[in-house]
Amino acid sequence: MNQNGASVIQHIKAPFDPGDVVTTDRLNAYRDEGRPMLNNYARHAKIGEGQHGEVYLCYQTNPRYPQGHPNRRIPVAMKSVRRDNPRAKQFRQLRQQRLPTSAHTPLVDRLGTTEAKIRKEIAIMKKCRHPHVVRLYEIIDDRTRDKIYMVMEYLAGGEVKWKNEHDQPILSVDQTRRIIRDAVLGLEYLHHQGIIHRDIKPANLLWTEDRRQVKIADFGVSHFSYAQRLAAAGKDGLVEDPEDPILMDDTDLTRRAGTPSFLAPEIVYEHTNDPSPGSSSSGGVLTAGSSSLTHAASSQSMPSMQRPPITKSIDVWALGVTLYCLLFGKTPFVADPAAAGTEWSLYNSICNNDWSVDDTMGSDCLPTGGRHPTGEATEGAMVVRLLDHLLQKDVKARITLDEVKSNKWILRGLAEPEKWLRITMPRGKINVSVDETSDAMSSVHFRWNWGVVSRRISSLFRRSPREPNADFQDARGAVRSDPHGQLGIRRHQSARLDDAFSFNANANARRVEGKQRSETRPPTGPSSNGVRSKSIERWAVSARRDATRSTPAIPEPNQGRRGSLPFLFAERNTKYHTVSSQSSPIAIDKPRARFANIFNISHWRPNKFSPPGRSPTETASVSIAEVSRRKTNPAARPLRRSEEALRHYRPKSQVSSGPLTAERRASSWGQGDQTMEFAEISSLISSSYEHSEREPNVVSLNGPYADRTFAPRTPSRLSTNVATASPTSEDPPSRRDGDDEEFGPACLDEDSSTIASGDGEWRNGSDLDDDDGDLYNDLVNGGARSEEDDDDDDDDSEDQEETAVTFSPRRRLQPME
Ligand SMILES: Nc1ncnc2c1ncn2[C@@H]1O[C@H](COP(=O)(O)OP(=O)(O)OP(=O)(O)O)[C@@H](O)[C@H]1O
Question: Bias regions of kind Acidic residues — which residues (predicted)?
Answer without folding.
Answer: 739-752, 787-802
